[in-house]
Every structure is written in C-alpha cells, then in structure tokens.
Amino acid sequence: MTDTMTGQTNAERAAALLARHRASIDNLDAILIHTLAERFKETQAVGQLKAEYDLPPSDKTREEAQIARLRAKAVEAGLDPVFAEKFLNFVIAEVIRHHEQFQK
Questions:
Q1: What is the DSSP letter of 80?
Q2: Half-sphere exposure of residue 8, counting CA atoms within 13 Å on the CB side?
Q3: CB 83 within 8 A of CB 74
Q4: Mutual orientation of helices 10-52 and 81-103 as an angle, nearest 10°?
Q5: 20 to 30 A Cα–Cα from 102, which one of 10, 52, 56, 84?
Q6: Quick count: other Cβ atoms within 10 Å of Cβ 63?
Q7: pLDDT at 7
Q8: b/e 73-94 (16+ beta carbons within 10 angstroms → b)
Q9: Tens digit of each residue's pLDDT, the chain (104 residues)
Q10: Cα-based angle 31, 66, 83 (whole degrees, multiple of 5)
Q11: Residues 6+ apart with CB under 8 A from 31
C-alpha cells in the first residue's frame, strides 16, 4: 500500500523509521563504550592506589552502597533495577579482577 501524500509504501516508511531508530541506538552504543572506557581508566587508577597502599582489591561496603544507589537510579530512569544490578555486578567483578592483578 502506498501513502498518497508521501509516495512511500508502508514497507519503505517502516524501513526509514527503523533506520532512524537504529542510528540512534548505534550512537548510544558508542556512548556506552566510551563511558565504560573512562570508568575503567578511573578504576585502574583506584586499583594502582590500592596496591600501593596495600588495601584490599574489593570493598564490600562500597559495592553494596553502589548497588543500592544504582538500583534506585534505575527505578528513577525507568530501567529494570534487576538488570541494572546484574550489569553493575558484572562491572564490579571485572574491576576487582583488575585490582587483584595490581596486587600481584
């Protein structure tokens, strides 16, 4: 079926809309990657500091506080807090792994 005002078929209109959404998603993915890169630069510096001062690689109190804070932020943002917690736990595990490497 063709829209008489635009001359586009439904499939063409859908393809154009889909392309715009995908372009936005691609931009957001790039932002996420750059944000994670910056975050890991900072956590690497924290790991070096912890190694220098012989501090433990993980801080359970801080981790628990961060998880609670970010779960609340997720709710505020309309993001599933369970997903947010799983994602943060993955990031925390990777950070601790890096910190343990500095301890060696």
A1: -
A2: 9
A3: yes
A4: 40
A5: 84
A6: 16
A7: 72
A8: ebeeeeeebeebeeebeebbee
A9: 666 666 788 899 999 999 999 999 999 999 999 999 999 999 999 999 999 999 999 999 999 999 999 999 999 999 999 999 999 999 999 999 988 888 87
A10: 60
A11: none
Q: Tokens 């956590």 sit at which residue?
A: 43
Helices (H) then strands (E): counts for the chain: 3, 0
pLDDT digits (tens, 9 = 90+) for 66-84: 999 999 999 999 999 999 9
Q: Report pTM.
A: 0.79
First to last CA, the chain: 66
- Are 50 and 102 in contact, with CB atoms under 8 Å apart? yes
Compute CA distances 54 → 49, 78, 94, 96, 104, whole Å: 8, 40, 19, 14, 11
